[in-house]
TrEMBL record:
Top-level taxon of origin: Bacteria
Lineage of producing organism: Bacteria, Bacillati, Bacillota, Clostridia, Lachnospirales
InterPro entries assigned to the protein according to its UniProt record, in alphabetical order: Glyco_trans_2-like, Nucleotide-diphossugar_trans
Domain Glycosyltransferase 2-like, chain residue ranges per copy: 79-240, 337-514
Organism: Blautia hansenii (Ruminococcus hansenii)
This protein's name: Glycosyltransferase family 2 protein
Length: 609
């Protein structure tokens, strides 16, 4: 089936009165154009279908049996916390069966039943508690709301760690084993979370929509509660943070995750699908409109996290339920130095400069054009024209092309506290592009901010860079239509990454100087990736901001890598990166996931061997 086409058979197979009603809700919310885009994204064929992939992924019976026999040096008790309210009997049984199937034995299940009038629930709970002494339950006199109900379950816990489980969801049989294994390796971990998928059906469950997560990512967490399930926290930390807060009902776990991760010494991500989030008509997973109040509570949770971190930011909802944007206002009016290397490309440079001058709403900037051995009269005539603008300076780099050296030279001549590296074949789209980048770059924890770039045909050229894609590093979502948001909205939301392209990249001058600029041994390729990784080594964040949008017509002035010398140079730069970043390349990008492809740009599943 051609890429970009809806899998109509799959779509028609999902048709039901409820699905039609759901579709109409989404149509009303998004409008025709946005709804059509999302329909395409949802029902496009999967490059690697998840159902068969998952069947190959899950542990075999032999593996599970081996896990059950493991002798533990450190095997902490894990209390599973469940607030239950009007839980259908079948779902309640399946939940408890998923605990009884665990290959790790040192657990307890703490259920707070907030449906005192539901005889069926009480019967089932009594039955299972009699069957296994690790199953504990408490009848609440009334429904106190999800936060207080959960706190009642917390109060029952005697384990060293507590894991949150919704009353209609399921744990994979190896979930607690994987948690215990991580804790045995690193006993100082305070917080753990895992990957998850969704399930639907009654007796036979269909697994779909895997959520394969990165390691801890604070800006992604402020864009969406990506951690969600399965979340495990050291009980002493839980007590320190004070449990759930009822004023955040609907997003009480989001608020709790923010507070726990902020207080945690070590946060650990287990890149395994260990939690199954059930979808049905009344669940938020399948019907976001059933809990619109939850999204407002989520917004308040982000605002509180910003306050707790001493940050000023304006939080707003995006068009997509449960996703947010944080906009950081610029403090003061610092000078931004825009550094643009150029050789001959008069037409490209003119388009770039005009877009900066005409579209930028921020005014305190200077433009440094680093001229590199141009030969045409046309470009020098244009330089003379630009010299009449006091905010534009022309610098001359007379040696051979070396992207790193040219930009390092421009940075030495720049007067600003913030350096904005920009290719000459870019064109500004967002008027507030400088303010948007500056708002992030002024944060104490941030060193670099990157942008979302498009080819001239309105497909994505860059939406962040992942280490290991294509061997060394690659841009994500290349050639995806501009209007799309990508896997888990990754192309459309703010997040931290290992690298972004220097085709449009803002850097704190202090950070630039701290890592001594770009690596001049990398004259053409991967210099921006190497630079970002060295900034990350200094514990600064590299932020991808999709609200900074530009066209990038891509590297015309440099020419193709078509000579023997250029090919040899490119190969030497690949080898340089392999040697310098060998450990990272072997271990994998912490902002990606080991189950995702390294040969595709769109967060496709990595095929099973």
């Amino acid at each position: 089936m051609p890429k970009g086409k809806i899998e109509w058979g799959k779509l028609m197979g999902k048709m039901s009165p409820y699905m039609i009603q759901k579709g109409l809700r989404y149509l009303k919310h998004y409008g025709v154009k946005e709804f059509w885009v999302r329909l395409h994204e949802r029902f496009e064929p999967e490059e690697v279908p998840y159902g068969p992939w998952y069947e190959q992924y899950i542990p075999t019976r032999e593996e599970l049996e081996k896990q059950r026999k493991k002798k533990w040096n450190y095997g902490p008790k894990i209390s599973i916390i469940v607030p239950a309210y009007k839980t259908p009997e079948a779902f309640l049984r399946q939940l408890m069966d998923s605990l009884l199937a665990q290959t790790y034995a040192n657990w307890e299940l703490c259920i707070a039943n907030a449906s005192p009038e539901d005889a069926s629930m009480e019967y089932v709970l009594k039955e299972y508690a009699k069957k296994d002494s690790r199953i504990l339950w408490k009848k609440l006199e009334e429904n106190k709301g999800i936060a207080e109900n959960t706190n009642e379950a917390f109060a029952m816990a005697t384990g060293e760690f507590a894991g949150l489980l919704d009353h209609d969801d399921l744990l994979a049989p190896n979930a607690l084993y994987e948690v215990a294994k991580a804790l045995e390796t690193e006993p100082d971990i305070d917080v753990l979370y895992t990957d998850e998928d969704k399930v639907r059906g009654d007796e036979v469950l269909e697994h779909f929509q895997p959520h394969l997560k990165p390691d801890f990512n604070i800006d992604l967490l402020r864009s969406n509660n990506y951690i969600c399930h399965f979340f495990v926290v050291r009980k002493s930390l839980l007590e320190k943070t004070g449990g759930f807060r009822r004023e955040y009902d609907g997003a009480q776990d989001y608020d709790f995750i923010f507070r726990c991760t902020q207080a945690a010494g070590k946060i650990h991500h287990i890149p395994e699908i260990l939690y199954h989030w059930r979808t049905h008509q009344s669940s938020t997973a399948d019907n976001p409109e059933s809990k619109l109040y939850a999204f407002e509570a989520g917004k308040r949770a982000i605002e509180e996290n910003l306050r707790q971190n001493g940050l000023i930011g304006e939080v707003s909802h995006t068009k997509d339920y449960g996703f947010y944007r944080v906009k950081y206002p610029v403090q003061g009016e610092p000078l931004v130095s825009i550094i643009i290397p150029n050789k001959d490309a008069k037409e490209d440079l003119e388009k770039c400069i005009q877009s900066i001058l005409e579209k930028s709403s921020y005014t305190n900037y200077e433009i440094l054009i680093v001229e590199n051995n141009s030969t045409g009269e046309e470009i020098f005539s244009y330089y003379k024209e630009l010299s009449e603008n006091s905010r534009i300076r022309l610098l001359r780099w007379k040696r051979e092309f070396n992207y790193s050296a040219i930009n390092n030279y421009g940075a030495k001549k720049a007067k600003g506290d913030y350096l904005l590296f920009l290719n000459n074949d870019t064109e500004v789209i967002s008027p507030d592009w400088i303010e948007e980048m500056l708002g992030f770059c002024q944060r104490p924890d941030t060193g670099i901010v990157g942008a979302r770039l498009y080819f001239g045909n309105n497909t994505v050229q860059h939406a962040g860079t992942v280490i290991g894609i294509g061997g060394i590093a690659g841009h994500m979502f290349t050639d995806m239509p501009r209007e799309r948001s990508g896997y888990m909205h990754k192309a459309a939301i703010i997040q931290d990454l290992s690298a972004v392209t220097a085709a449009c990249m803002m850097v704190k001058r202090q950070v630039f100087d701290e890592v001594q600029g770009f690596e001049e041994q990398l004259s053409v390729a991967f210099n921006d990736v190497d630079f970002c990784l060295r900034v990350r080594e200094k514990q600064y964040l590299v932020v991808y901001d999709p609200y900074v949008e530009l066209y990038h017509y891509e590297s015309k002035s440099r020419g193709a890598e078509d000579s023997k010398e250029k090919v040899r140079r490119f190969q030497s730069e690949i080898e340089f990166m392999r040697c310098r970043w060998e450990t990272l390349l072997k271990k994998g990008d912490p902002y990606y996931n080991k189950n995702l492809s390294l040969v595709k740009w769109n967060y496709s599943l990595k095929p099973k061997d």
